[in-house]
From TrEMBL:
<keyword id="KW-1133">Transmembrane helix</keyword>
<keyword id="KW-0472">Membrane</keyword>
<dbReference type="InterPro" id="IPR017972">
    <property type="entry name" value="Cyt_P450_CS"/>
</dbReference>
<dbReference type="Pfam" id="PF00067">
    <property type="entry name" value="p450"/>
</dbReference>
<keyword id="KW-0812">Transmembrane</keyword>
<keyword id="KW-0325">Glycoprotein</keyword>
<dbReference type="InterPro" id="IPR036396">
    <property type="entry name" value="Cyt_P450_sf"/>
</dbReference>
<dbReference type="GO" id="GO:0020037">
    <property type="term" value="F:heme binding"/>
</dbReference>
<dbReference type="GO" id="GO:0016020">
    <property type="term" value="C:membrane"/>
</dbReference>
<protein>
    <submittedName>
        <fullName>Cytochrome P450</fullName>
    </submittedName>
</protein>
<comment type="pathway">
    <text>Secondary metabolite biosynthesis.</text>
</comment>
<dbReference type="InterPro" id="IPR001128">
    <property type="entry name" value="Cyt_P450"/>
</dbReference>
<dbReference type="InterPro" id="IPR050364">
    <property type="entry name" value="Cytochrome_P450_fung"/>
</dbReference>
<comment type="similarity">
    <text>Belongs to the cytochrome P450 family.</text>
</comment>
<keyword id="KW-0408">Iron</keyword>
<keyword id="KW-0349">Heme</keyword>
<keyword id="KW-0732">Signal</keyword>
Amino acid sequence: KVGSREKGLPPGPPTLPIVGNLHLLPAEFIHYKFTEWARQFGGIYSLKMGSGTAIVLTDAAAVKELLDKRSATTMDRPPTHLAEVVTQGLHLVFARYTEKWKILRRAAQAILTPQASARHLPIQQAEAVQLLHDLLQSPDSFYTHIQRYSNSVILSVLYGKRAPRFETPETVTFFKTEHEWVTLLEPGATPPLDYFPFLKYVPERWASWKKMCQFVRKLQRDMYFNLLDKTQERVRRGEGNGSYVETLVERREELGLDREMLGYLSGVLIETGSETTSSYLQSLVMALVAYPEAQQKAHDEIDRVVGEHRMPTLDDLQHMPYVRAVILEAHRFRPTAPFGIPHCTTAAEEYKGYLIPAGSTIFINLWGIYHDPELYEDPENFIPDRYLLTENGTKPGVDSSDLRPTLAFGAGRRICPGLHVAQDSINLNVMNLLWAFNFNKATSAEGKPIEVDTWDYVTGLTSKPRSFKCKITPRTPEKADIIQHEFLGAVDLFTKFEFDLCPEDQEYIAKSRGQ
Ligand code: HEM
């Protein structure tokens, strides 16, 4: 019967005819609801989405078995009609398990290997220095400084062209396009097309989402292909600088990429690479402000290992167990993708006596795993020390062998291909920020400390704190001098990524470099 739960499925909340459990799903913070149900129905339960089925995994052993080990039948994505209309199967994240996805994924992996990621390290390091420099100049704008940082890194890695300001035209275009795309994808913004397919056939005059899809499609294509064409033009002028797109173009035939795929692959990587890393860093700053004791311990360790007279390097991290614990705890405390990105089964699977039908959507409820009181002591608080006690931060005595440090990046053959770039970026910036600054509560006009609300988040597929106030001050004048010195020292590298800049960017560059 449509909407009721078939025999053999894992348990779940009671259903209604036709809609199943759809009426119970909130439009926002779906992971809180997923977690509430997990505490009631267990680590594996099912939801009826109209006539379809979703399985929610809040159990690391189930993720390992079903998504890592049985990846061959769980690596599809569920149908997303909007993504299909807007990107026609070329969006690496939403693409079904098709030939197109295989080609895009292979190309993404070929170029985001740890070795390739290491090649891009110098520009990442230089951009991270600019982040520190920007924070010295205007600490209150930390939120957008972080966004500029991650957007500029990914633009440089992909297209060899950086964004010196948050207002740099490419960055502005990216955020405008991204905003429209995310708004279109928001649950509730459009009718539930994937659960009630007949809605797709409603004529355009009654379905305004169809116009929106065309609008977003145009915005994305304009941005993607403009960036691609300009990069290719520059390479033809002999001004290549080893960017990702150059490598893709060189290896185009071997990788089987046509122009459409080239444009979409790189464009989608800006989207996935930009907001994830910056959301993580914004959450980290929030946690440091809210948990001064943890910040103090990290400061003490970094002072012991790196000291006053130089900036940290990636090699230092191996000597800093507490900072490594801070990095893992930030993923746990506020995961960037709190319910992963849904997978879909291509064949029926049996697990622990349950039957998971072919075509089921599978969610990894990362939030629920990371906030499970059975696994973690006091899971609602930011306590990096837990990762000093046990490898996975779990309570001593708990078997955590199914957890792994990369769980925040998903599972199986869909695991985040940007993992190495992201980890380098995160490691570098967490060390830099802790070395350079104190993060404290801002004070109100009446001189009272302004508390940060660590629950004030925006969520869609990814999750980030809403812009908040805090006070960021350099830890010593010497450190401020070193940052300034390193910033000027990075100018030669920056210039290799500065092409066709608008007059405002040129003016900013001249001014900030004292030229
Ligand atoms: C804090 C940083 C990041 C986190 C936490 C993160 C997390 C994730 C997660 C959870 C998934 C879904 C995996 C699955 O389906 O099981 C994913 C997919 C993906 N990520 Fe990341 N990511 C991050 C940074 C990046 C970066 C820097 C890039 C690009 C350079 C990137 C590119 C992608 C792509 C293309 C996919 C889709 C892969 C596919 O469906 O085949 N991510 N990421």
